[in-house]
Design goal:
The complex is a heterodimer of chains A (203) and B (476).
Chain A: E1 6-14, H1 21-24, H2 44-47, E2 71-74, H3 86-93, E3 98-101, H4 106-114, E4 118-121, H5 124-136, E5 141-145, E6 150-152, E7 158-160, H6 165-173, H7 177-182, H8 185-194
Chain B: H1 10-16, E1 19-21, E2 29-32, E3 35-38, H2 44-53, E4 63-66, H3 87-103, E5 107-108, H4 118-124, E6 133-136, E7 150-153, H5 156-165, E8 167-170, E9 174-181, H6 190-201, E10 209-214, H7 216-219, H8 223-231, E11 240-242, H9 247-253, H10 262-272, E12 285-290, E13 297-299, E14 307-309, H11 323-336, E15 351-354, H12 362-372, E16 382-385, H13 390-398, H14 401-408, E17 411-412, E18 433-436, E19 451-454, H15 457-466
Parallel strand pairs in B: 3-4, 3-6, 4-5, 6-7, 9-10, 9-12, 10-11, 15-16, 15-18, 16-17, 18-19
Antiparallel strand pairs in B: 1-2, 2-8, 13-14
Classes of the chains: A alpha/beta (203), B alpha/beta (476).
Bound molecules: iron/sulfur cluster (SF4).
Chain lengths: 203, 476
């Protein structure tokens, strides 16, 4: 994973509540065995018309003025539903580095952080402000300081957001959690020795 | 079983018994995983990661694979094989077979006598037992919580973590007691309970929490009904839902392939009996529903929280004061092509789907078959019945349920996820309406442009016969 310390980017808004991971990446794209090419399918059923290939001119991500946006501001409870990690893969593939909402579904949040996609929680007032700023001016840009857990709005207002210390450490240093777990092998062995009873699938 | 005399909840007992390392200021807890279920869709990238790093699967003996999500449910050919027409699905299934072979993981392949939906086969084989930690790269892993296990869905990176280390980094969730007191009326089922709970708390209501379902109505459900309830915990935002194990639980497990026997059974039972929440243990939140007040439920919108009693009218966005909720409802009704104030009862439907890890077990099929017997599926309706596993299918066939469905005009299919996720070609056409016993009514979930009403197997069967959304109570 790449280190993630700062984000500076333009904002695009999808002001819809409860965007589920089936919308972020429909199930028919889950037949892949790698992570490539999912960006093209992000929000596929909103992004294209019935034929599946003609861009829907009303969908914001098809508006050339917002091309290159790297921060997505969305309605409440983003990423609910299916646990598919294809959702953050698709968002990253579509060029996003951060998603802002008032709340994230647990599994999405975990999956996003493991891939260096930053979920930023703000209050409803900030969310509304960002919705209208992004709507009025496609060049609206925000900056994020991961270390300080701080989001800076175009008017200079700074907002702190929650981020657990461990995820922050992993983002800042570009380390993934597997390395940490692999180092605990002795402790895991100790646990297994103390708790020997298991249901074996191979029995 | 108290810890320093402090009363604990069921969840806390299971959690405490599995922490290799406690949560600290700097890092989440490290949780040991007793059982890891894997399937073809959310595992390939995790296996690739193991290969890239030269890692092995640490405990293949605590891991089990099955094919379910992208498998066809069409009939077997003359050779007894279920052909896979979709090249990408075929490749994914091949990759899965190779991965399980290479890493020594036991796996039930398409058509195998034990194959089925991952959350149906765990309990069926007796692998799911009280007090265990169970994970799978699938959000409906919560199903296994019906046995008093802590079971939750994980992403593919985490699938890799568990494959490589048998552990996971987890922040300790909060707890919510969900009490369902009293007795259900006839025609009202487990599915109606969980749809009512989600309609009440909303789809984000349980975020950050583990539910513990309690109360007389939950006790009375039996194991398969409890699985239906726990299955949809994620639709209320909770990663896990649990029910304290009791005699129904033990009876269900006893004699299954992986269940303990002899002296081991007695020892297991003694341990399992310690699991229920201690008197005086505290939950972070608590809600209570009265079972007698529930009637069959149905969803009208595009998330499982948009549900209502089947006799109610579709709500009006204009009555919604919260702007975000109003727009969400507007958008949902536009997608569903429904009007505010409209009754769903009597609404013509095109498809009825009985299946999915929510409602594809033998008791679900029995309930639907009993209703259908001697009746006919309406001309205008395509009814699909998809058993949750090969074992459920065989059991149903031995009871003649397949004949009941077939002679009523329904399709009797091979086991799998099927139209719950519509990855395998079983799907709605744009604009079609379905009454479905699955768990998600998201836009396009059952096929692009398809519209889903979630309901119980009884409501689905009644609607199939009438050709319109119907209240099963009037037809029992
Ligand atoms: S039946 Fe549906 S919800 Fe259950 S595991 Fe399969 S796709 Fe997921």
């Amino acid at each position: 994973m790449e280190k993630l310390k700062h984000i500076q980017g333009t904002v695009v808004a999808i002001p819809v509540n409860d965007i589920d991971t089936d919308q972020i990446i429909p199930a028919r794209f889950l037949k892949v065995t790698d992570k490539d090419g999912l960006g093209k399918a992000a929000f596929c059923d909103w992004r294209y018309l019935e034929d599946g290939t003609t861009p829907n001119p009303d969908f914001i991500l098809n508006n050339p003025a917002y091309a290159g946006a790297s921060v997505l501001i969305a309605g409440n409870n983003f990423g609910c539903g299916s646990s598919r990690e294809h959702a953050p893969w698709a968002l990253i593939g579509a060029g996003f580095q951060a998603v802002i909402s008032t709340e994230f579904a647990d599994i999405f949040r975990n999956n996003a952080l493991k891939n260096g996609l930053l979920p930023i929680i703000v209050d409803e007032e900030t969310q509304r402000q960002l919705f209208s700023l992004a709507d009025e001016d496609p060049t609206t840009s925000v900056s994020v300081d991961v270390e300080a857990q701080r989001l800076t709005l175009p008017d200079g207002r700074q907002i702190e957001f929650p981020l657990d210390g461990f995820s922050k450490y992993c983002l800042l240093n570009g380390v993934d959690q597997l390395g940490y777990l692999l180092n605990l092998d002795d402790e895991v062995r100790g646990f297994e020795a103390r708790n020997p009873q298991r249901v074996e699938t191979t029995a | 079983m108290t810890n320093n005399g402090k009363p604990r909840t069921l969840f806390e007992k299971v959690w405490d018994a599995h922490t290799v390392r406690d949560e600290s200021e700097d890092s989440p807890a490290v949780l040991y995983i007793d059982l890891h279920l894997v399937h073809e869709v959310t595992s390939p990238q995790a296996f690739s990661m193991l290969r890239e790093r030269g890692l092995k699967v640490r405990r293949p003996d605590l891991t089990i694979g099955t094919m379910d999500h992208s498998t066809p449910t069409t009939p077997r050919n003359e050779l007894g094989i279920i052909p896979v027409a979709d090249a990408m699905a075929a490749k994914q299934l091949d990759t899965f077979t190779r991965n399980c072979d290479d890493f020594g993981i036991p796996m039930y392949a398409l058509g195998d006598e034990h194959q089925g939906i991952v959350h149906v086969i765990g309990p069926e084989k007796g692998l799911t037992q009280p007090g265990m930690t169970i994970v799978c790269g699938d959000s409906h892993t919560s199903t296994h919580g019906a046995f008093g296990a802590l079971a939750f869905g994980i992403g593919t990176s985490e699938v890799g973590h568990v494959l490589a280390t048998q552990t996971l980094l987890q922040n300790k969730p909060k707890t919510m007691a969900v009490n369902v007191e009293g007795k259900l009326e006839e025609g009202v089922t487990a599915k109606d309970i969980i749809l009512a709970i989600i309609a009440r708390i909303g789809i984000g209501g349980g975020t950050g929490h583990v539910f513990e379902y309690r109360g007389e109505a939950i006790r009375d459900l039996g194991m398969e009904g409890r699985m239906t309830v726990c299955n949809m915990s994620i639709e209320g935002g909770a990663r896990a839902g649990m029910v304290a194990p009791d005699d129904s639980t033990f009876e269900y497990i006893s004699g299954r392939q992986h269940a303990p026997s002899g002296a081991e059974w007695d020892a297991a039972l003694a341990k399992w009996r310690q699991l229920p929440t201690d008197d005086g243990a505290a939950y972070d939140q608590e809600i209570t529903l009265r079972a007698e007040e529930l009637i069959p439920m149905i969803t009208y919108g595009t998330n499982p929280g948009m549900g209502m009693p089947i006799t109610a009218a579709v709500p009006a966005p204009d009555d919604e004061r919260d702007y975000n909720k109003k727009t969400a409802l507007d958008k949902a009704l536009a997608y569903m092509d429904l009007q505010p104030g409209q009754q769903l009862l009597g609404k013509p439907i095109d498809v009825v789907f009985i299946g999915s890890c929510t409602n594809s077990r033998i008791s679900d099929l029995r309930q639907a078959a009993k209703f259908i017997e001697g009746r006919q599926v309406a001309e205008s309706v395509r009814m699909m019945v998809v058993p949750g596993s090969q074992q459920v299918k065989r059991q149903a066939e031995s009871e003649g349920l397949d004949e009941v469905f077939r002679s009523a005009g329904a399709e009797w299919r091979e086991a799998g996820c099927s139209m719950c996720i519509a990855m395998n070609g079983d799907q709605l056409e744009p604009g079609q309406y379905a009454v479905s016993t699955s768990n998600r009514n998201f836009e396009g979930r059952q096929g692009k442009g398809g519209r889903t009403f979630l309901a119980s197997p009884l409501t689905a069967a009644a609607s199939a016969v009438a050709g319109v959304v119907s209240d099963p109570r009037a037809m029992l």
